[in-house]
Amino acid sequence: MTATVAFVFAHPDDETYLASALIRRLADEGSPPVLLLATRGDAGQKNGAYAHESPQQLGVRREREMQRAAELLGLSVVEYLGYPDGKLNQMEEEEFVARIAEFLNRHQAQAVVTFPEDGGNGHPDHVTISKRTAQAVCSGRTPAVRKLYYVQSAALTEQGREPALQLDTESYWPVKAAALAAHESQRLAVERFFGELGNVLPEARRYESFALAWENGGGWPKKREDWILDGLSDE
Ligand SMILES: [Zn+2]
Asked: How far is the CA of 13 from the centre of ligand 1 (A)?
């Protein structure tokens, strides 16, 4: 079966860190995934070589890097809301939610993946995009959406929220490493998290895990899934 899964994140590279294997597998199986990013990452930390660039220039650079990563991951669509990096919590709430809903509806997304409520790492942009995405989905404004996933976090595990879906990234590591490397301006941060990018999968980053926060109107159904498209229909 095929269906559209939408990924909604804050910055170019969030998707590659957290969901490369999931995205690539969807594409390989004939369900082209779509990505919505709230910002172009124009305030992101820069490697020494790009330290002189203005936010505008960095945004252009990161959009280009994202395009390369998208090709590697098989993302069919990458769209931007164009909000300023680092300021998502200052953006007008109603319009923000409406724009996410519009994206999900236009692509007829049936499943949505975003950050957990604490943003995973507490980044204020991650927290805000999680909240606005949940508002769009859970308010009934996106009738085609059946499931909302949060990237698994330590906080969720502590609360007893086990991941519904877990992917072993081993066979996807070469493509994930290449997509991470495509985000060249972020290389210092990438290598802090994954170690030096090479052929060997860093064991501590082996799994991509996702918690099912909402399904068909109900919060936190307790289940384990074999695949993200389980329970979706072809219509
Ligand atoms: Zn981010």
From this structure: 7
